[in-house]
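re: ur question from earlier - yeah i can do the single chain one, its not a big deal. heres the input i used so u can compare w yours
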Amino acid sequence: MTSGERGARARGGLEREVLATVAAATAPVSTAEVHAQLGPNLAYTTVMTTLARLHDKGVLRREKRGRAFAYELATRVEDVEASLTAHRMHRLLEAEADRAGVLARFVADLSSEDEALLTGLLSGSPTAPDIRPDAVGQSAGD
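and the output i got, formated as tokens:
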């Protein structure tokens, strides 16, 4: 891939393309299968690295298939963006020495609707959105 082709892809564009390819599959897919779908202008190792990073972020699950891995979504398609955003938020929080200060500022800046939603989530309210614990747990450890 040339630098011009790299520059043409929006930030996060490759991750979205890889996720769309995995989501469209009816069974777990290998790096080679994803690479074949995305086309020859993309390096195989780039696809492999992107899949591994998405797995590390808790968005993909993988299973050993021979010497390689086969990947599938770890969450529902409609929850992928929320899972990626939660991972980014967690990573940013981990980078701060004053976690309590960051969290306090975050909560102070919430709208009243978001504050009520967060309170419901923390108390286990039945009005909280349905979140799969396995996907959340994978992101939290990163």
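The chain has eight helices and three strands. not sure if urs matches, ping me
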